[in-house]
Amino acid sequence: MASLLGVSLLARAAITASVMALTMHVVLGLDMSYAAAGGVAAALTAGMALGGPLLGRMIDRRGLRTVLLVTVVLQAVFWLSVPILPYGILMGAAFAAGLLMVPAQPVTRQAIAAMTTAGQRRAAFALESVQGELSYIVGPPIVILYAAKVSPGMVAWSVGAAIVAGGAGIALLNPPLRAENEADADTVGHPRRREWLGPGMIAVLVMAFGTTMLLSGTDLAIVATLEEAGQVSWAAVVVAVYGVASIVGGLVYGALPRPLPTWLLLGLLGLSTIPAGLAHDWPWLCVAGVGAGLLAAPTLSAVADAVSRLAPASVRGEATGLQSSAQSAGFALGSPIVGVAIDVSVPAGGFAAAGLAGLAAALAGCLLSRRSPTRARSPISSSVSRS
């Protein structure tokens, strides 16, 4: 597990930084606008959102190493070609690269479900959510600093090398994706999608979308608030405080004796985000960030745990791919929606919009989970562990 988390962290940090690397290349290397850079970043993100279920289904049917071989080779070709591609071709290639991105995050989640007992799983997923926070704290800042020292092409090559190395490392480890008692899952056939994609799973996916929409919207609201106060240079400090608080919250949540319902964690995260709009300078935003940050990683951890419990072993890859797609869509839509709220009101409206989005997703998840026939033992609607 330690080896897997270490190699996966390398891949996830590079994947997280890939959007920033392409942005730096388009702005500095091609000398184009940030709007043009946003188009390439959107193409990559859209590809990743659509590719999650596709790659998960391929893993379920063809095996992990086959999928990793295909994705690693394509990533190597794409990132080596980035510095020489004209803008129009780069946008199409970025979409293809996102569609076949190395599935480090969903594979890690599948392996955690297979390698842990029911009693260990929540703590393991808490570590996985902490890993995600570390990738966001480390990846993009390194790319920005690196871009200021060397050429954007070198930055692209370095990010690509890290993605390839992470994917190759996971392939060498070849972690089990099914527990010993699930090894014969293929012999009974793959269940039809409507058999497992019911109200319970849809509830989790809605909450996955709402969580990342809230988080990406919060980042934009922080920048807007500090820009209005003339303190935008402190944005990195506020975001770092938020990330560290999230890491602490994830570790504490993993050590709790009993889980909390996913909808409750997301609802509390939404409620704690709204008051951040009352802060008007960076010290108070740091205080507000601690309160909300403590709930971020636990919420993401609970979502991942719920997906692993609700998905049958033979389709767990597709289910975790759907989770990744829902979270990618939330990240993609959070900033524009919160940006509109800021434009028509004040920066505080951004925190309100982000928090209300989380509350709406939590309410929808709660109502959908109550319709699930398995709600009595579902981690999204019960705080009683199946262990």
UniProtKB/TrEMBL annotation:
<protein>
    <submittedName>
        <fullName>Putative MFS family arabinose efflux permease</fullName>
    </submittedName>
</protein>
<feature type="transmembrane region" description="Helical">
    <location>
        <begin position="348"/>
        <end position="368"/>
    </location>
</feature>
<feature type="transmembrane region" description="Helical">
    <location>
        <begin position="32"/>
        <end position="51"/>
    </location>
</feature>
<dbReference type="InterPro" id="IPR011701">
    <property type="entry name" value="MFS"/>
</dbReference>
<keyword id="KW-1133">Transmembrane helix</keyword>
<keyword id="KW-0812">Transmembrane</keyword>
<feature type="transmembrane region" description="Helical">
    <location>
        <begin position="232"/>
        <end position="253"/>
    </location>
</feature>
<feature type="transmembrane region" description="Helical">
    <location>
        <begin position="260"/>
        <end position="276"/>
    </location>
</feature>
<feature type="transmembrane region" description="Helical">
    <location>
        <begin position="154"/>
        <end position="173"/>
    </location>
</feature>
<dbReference type="InterPro" id="IPR036259">
    <property type="entry name" value="MFS_trans_sf"/>
</dbReference>
<dbReference type="Pfam" id="PF07690">
    <property type="entry name" value="MFS_1"/>
</dbReference>
<keyword id="KW-0472">Membrane</keyword>
<feature type="transmembrane region" description="Helical">
    <location>
        <begin position="87"/>
        <end position="104"/>
    </location>
</feature>
<feature type="transmembrane region" description="Helical">
    <location>
        <begin position="202"/>
        <end position="226"/>
    </location>
</feature>
<dbReference type="GO" id="GO:0022857">
    <property type="term" value="F:transmembrane transporter activity"/>
</dbReference>
